C-alpha cells in the first residue's frame, strides 16, 4: 500500500524525550532507535509542507504519576529539566508545534490530546489524517492513537518508529492489536510517497 502525503496530513511525534531514552530516568528499551526513522518521516512531511507536532510530558515535580505521589513511575520529564528535553538527535524543524501534556500535578495525561490544544489545532489546519510514532507504544502512543480515532481522524501508526515499555511481556503487541481493532492503519516509511 502506498500512501501519498499531502498538506492535509500531520505527523505527530509522541514523547521522544531524554528521560524515555536509554540513560534517562524512565527509559523505554531501545527507545532511541525511533529517532533515525522519525527524522526520515520529518523530512518527508516537511517537504510537502504538512504540519509536524511533537508532544512532551511536562510534569510538575509533584506529579500524580510519580511513585512518591501514588503513581507507577519514577520522577521523569519534569518541566524545564534536561530529562524533559527532546532527544538531541531528533531533527525537529523550527516550526514544529510543541504540545505539552500532563502539566498539572493532579492530572494524568498519556494522550497528546488530553488537556491540550492538539485537536483544535489539527481541525484549524483542516487536517484529515494523522501519522503517529514515538514513545511508548503501550502508553502514550496508544492513548494518542485511540483519541485521534475517537475524534474522527484517519490514523496511521508508524510501526517502524515506535518502541514499548512492556511492563508485562507482550504489552506492546497487545497495544498494537487494540489500536488496529479500533481502526488504526499500520504502515512503515516505505509505504509513504510524496
Residue stretches low in confidence (pLDDT < 50, at least 5 long) are none
Number of extended strands: 8
Structural class: alpha/beta
Looking at CATH, which topology would you report? Rossmann fold
User: In which range does the helix fraction lie?
Assistant: 25-40%
If you compute it from the alpha carbons, what radius of gyration comes out, rounded to the nearest whole angstrom? Answer: 15 Å
Q: How are strands sequenced across the largest beta sheet?
A: 4-3-2-5-6-7
Reading off the top of the CATH hierarchy, the class is best stated as Alpha Beta
CATH architecture: 3-Layer(aba) Sandwich
Total discrete domains: 1
Reported for the largest beta sheet, the result is:
6 strands, parallel
Please tell me what the overall shape is.
globular
Model description:
The chain has a single domain (3-193), classed as Rossmann fold. Helices cover 25% and strands 21% of the residues. Strand 5 (129-135), helix 3 (137-150) and strand 6 form a beta-alpha-beta unit. The chain has 194 residues and is of the alpha/beta class. It has helices spanning 33-48, 118-124, 137-150, 171-182, and strands at residues 3-4, 9-14, 52-57, 97-101, 129-135, 154-163, 185-187, 192-193. It is built from 4 helices and 8 strands, in the order E-E-H-E-E-H-E-H-E-H-E-E. The strands form 2 sheets. A 6-stranded parallel β-sheet has the order 4-3-2-5-6-7, sandwiched between helices. The mean pLDDT is 97. The longest helix is centred in the N-terminal third of the chain and has 16 residues, at 33-48.
Amino acid at each position: 500500500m502506498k500512501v501519498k502525503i499531502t498538506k492535509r496530513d500531520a505527523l505527530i511525534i509522541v514523547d521522544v524525550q531524554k528521560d524515555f531514552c536509554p540513560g534517562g530516568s524512565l527509559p523505554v528499551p531501545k527507545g532511541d532507535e525511533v529517532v533515525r526513522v522519525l527524522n526520515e518521516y520529518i523530512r518527508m512531511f516537511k517537504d510537502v509542507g504538512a504540519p509536524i507536532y511533537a508532544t512532551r510530558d511536562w510534569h510538575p515535580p509533584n506529579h500524580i504519576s510519580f511513585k512518591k505521589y501514588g503513581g507507577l513511575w519514577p520522577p521523569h520529564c519534569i518541566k524545564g529539566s534536561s530529562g524533559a528535553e527532546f532527544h538531541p538527535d531528533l531533527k525537529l524543524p523550527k516550526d514544529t508545534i510543541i504540545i505539552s501534556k500532563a502539566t498539572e500535578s493532579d492530572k494524568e495525561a498519556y494522550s497528546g490530546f488530553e488537556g491540550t490544544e492538539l485537536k483544535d489545532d489539527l481541525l484549524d489546519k483542516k487536517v484529515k489524517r494523522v501519522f503517529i510514532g514515538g514513545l511508548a507504544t503501550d502508553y502514550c502512543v496508544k492513548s494518542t492513537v485511540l483519541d485521534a480515532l475517537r475524534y474522527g481522524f484517519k490514523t496511521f501508526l508508524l510501526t517502524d518508529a515506535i518502541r514499548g515499555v512492556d511492563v508485562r511481556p507482550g504489552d506492546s503487541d497487545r497495544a498494537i492489536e487494540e489500536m488496529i481493532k479500533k481502526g488504526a492503519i499500520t504502515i512503515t516509511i516505505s509505504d509513504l510517497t510524496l
